[in-house]
Write a structure and sequence with these properties.
22% helix, methyltransferase activity, alpha/beta, binds S-adenosylmethionine, transferase, single chain, Class I SAM-dependent DNA methyltransferase
Length: 297
């Protein structure tokens, strides 16, 4: 029951790009790779508006439903809009992102949160948190098993015992039963700051790498084109459960909706569906197991 759309949540880690025919550095999945939307955070928010702060409100409600505390780390925080909202309702929030432009925007727009530059696959902060959020598929920039394991290991190392990991992302299992996202290229025209940006997006599955690869061609207001490649890991519920277990987490909920980017969309008070995982979004709540007291097996 989720709303498909190739245009959904797609800033992040491109795998090389060319602007007007000029080759840009190729940094597969790397934090320094270029991406038109992450380089233009205001355009990102215009392309993916969330005026009601649904994503942050959903994360807050999920956190409270599962007994989370108030110190929160938002990995892949982007423009900082979720971090800013959560700080405004009383959380002590740190946002981490690999995009300098996103962080500049976040720091200017959201003074109540702290923002740090880092790579969610490998980060080192001096603080522990009660909740780690990773929203709008940021987790899926962990392309390899080693990157996913690294992400979870660093999450575990930054959570208090019984701390929560809350993530929201595309659902790999959706593609087991549906090709609709793959069959229909997405074309959009976005008017921002009196100029029109057009994008044409196609998705394909790389079965060997288990990635959903996206090609996007932007036509900029001056007529130049920008071709960017990026990819998300296709994660399936069972393998996610396995990785989480190995990293010391208990899965409390894994469900396809309702969430902030599903159709029908989440509304305050709506409970997670019971273990359904056929929609195009996947929502995860996992709790870090408290270490066993010394002497216990
Ligand atoms: C789709 S956006 C989501 C932003 C935000 N969580 C939201 O929901 O609006 C993905 C974000 O992940 C960031 N990102 C991608 N790869 C990353 C990495 N390896 N480490 C840290 N951030 C990364 C991008 O810069 C981008 O801001």
């Amino acid at each position: 029951m989720s709303r498909p759309g190739p245009e959904r949540g797609d800033a992040g880690a491109p795998e090389g790009a060319d602007r007007g025919g000029r080759a840009l550095p190729t940094t597969p999945g790397g934090p320094d790779a270029r991406n038109f939307l992450t380089e233009n955070p205001a355009l990102y928010e215009a392309q993916f508006p969330d005026p009601g702060h649904l994503a942050a409100r959903w994360a807050d409600e999920i956190g409270r439903r599962f007994g989370g505390g108030r110190r929160l780390l938002d990995l892949g925080c982007g423009t900082g809009r979720d971090a800013g909202y959560l700080a405004g309702i009383g959380y002590a929030v740190t946002g981490l992102d690999s995009s300098v432009a996103m962080l500049d925007h976040a720091r200017k727009a959201h003074h109540a949160a702290t923002f740090v530059h880092g790579d969610l696959r490998e980060f080192q902060l001096d603080t522990r948190f009660d909740i780690i959020t990773c929203l709008d598929s940021a987790l899926l920039y962990c392309h390899t098993n080693a990157e996913l394991a690294g992400f979870l290991e660093h999450c575990a190392g930054h959570l208090t015992p019984n701390g929560l990991l809350i993530a929201e992302m595309r659902n790999g299992a959706f593609f087991l039963g549906s090709t609709e996202l793959l069959d229909t290229p997405g074309t959009r025209a976005l008017t921002w700051d009196d100029a029109t940006y057009r994008s044409h997006t196609t998705l394909r599955i790389d079965h060997t790498a288990q990635l959903l690869r996206r090609s996007r061609i932007w036509t900029l207001p001056d007529g130049t084109t920008l071709h960017q490649e990026s990819a998300w890991r296709l994660l399936f519920p069972q393998e996610l459960r396995y990785f989480l277990d190995v990293a010391g987490f208990d899965v409390l909920a894994l469900f396809d909706g309702p969430g902030p980017r599903t159709d029908p969309v989440w509304e305050p008070g709506a409970a997670p569906s019971a273990d359904a995982a056929s929609g195009d979004r996947l929502h995860l709540v996992a709790r870090l197991r408290a270490a066993a007291p010394e002497g216990e097996a």
